[in-house]
Amino acid sequence: MKRTDILLKGEKPLISPSLLAADFTKLASELERVAEADALHLDIMDGHYVPNISYGPAIVGQLRPYWGKAFDVHLMVSEPERWVDPFVKAGADILTFHWEATHHGHRLIQNIHEQGILAGVSLNPGTPVQVLDPLLPFLDLVLIMTVNPGFGGQAYIAEMEAKLKWLRRKREETNGKWLIQIDGGVSDQNIASASQAGADFFVAGTSIFKAESPENMIRRLRDLGRKA
Ligand code: DX5
Ligand code: ZN
Question: For residue 18, which phi and psi values (nearest 5 degrees)?
């Protein structure tokens, strides 16, 4: 049984707190505060693909014994091909790379699958969702950015919900299996409309880690995101 089985087969919506908004001076106890979540979202930034640097595989590997659920790794890096092995070794269960960062998306998805983990592709707000059409049959997850990648705490771009609608329609038409994830500015103010548009997997940094009770916020987001 893989750590991702529950994500694929279990109830939706799924909630993945973004560690970027945690207090980095006490990461182990920050993980305990979000134990209610379905997965942990790990933002990898290289100061080249995005204008910020976060952390790398050494830290992800050190966190692995402290988190029993899936590691949902979001690669915001140039040359994502170089980082498959290090993050698989560090314990990644999902590797999501940016479509804009490689000419060889299909090959990269194959390489990720050869490592026995799930493969996702992410799109910046300025990239049309239709570019994913040829890759969709091979993907486990599509991540629609609802902010420009690089920083936590930015405002949700509601216009991205049009991409969610397209993806959900496409998934219905083709009997697709990919998860539809969003990331950036997700909170109790917008999760219901994002869910209605088609998202079923929600990344949230600031709204969860800065809440008085992250556990209650995760439950609240899950309730609001549950489709009516
Ligand atoms: C942005 C990252 C996000 C970010 C989300 O580049 O990919 O995962 O941490 O943080 P909030 O929820 O604060 O927008
Ligand atoms: Zn992210």
Answer: -90, 120
Among 154, 181, 157, 156, which Cα is nearest to 167's? 181
Q: For the chain, percent helix, then strand, then coil, each to nearest 5?
A: 40, 20, 40
Q: Which atom of ligand 1 is nearest to the CA of 185?
A: 14
Supply 208's token pair: 């969860």
Beta strands in the chain (DSSP E): 14-17, 39-45, 70-76, 94-98, 118-123, 141-145, 179-183, 201-204
Q: Which two tokens stand for residue 186?
A: 């997700």
**CB of 72 shorter than 6 A to ligand 1:** no
pLDDT tens, position by position, 112-150: 999 999 999 999 999 999 999 999 999 999 999 999 999
Ligand 1 center to 197 CA (angstroms): 20
Average pLDDT, the chain: 98
> Is 74's C-beta closer than 6 angstroms to any atom of ligand 1?
yes
pLDDT at position 43 is 99
Question: Does 228 score more than 90 pLDDT?
Answer: no
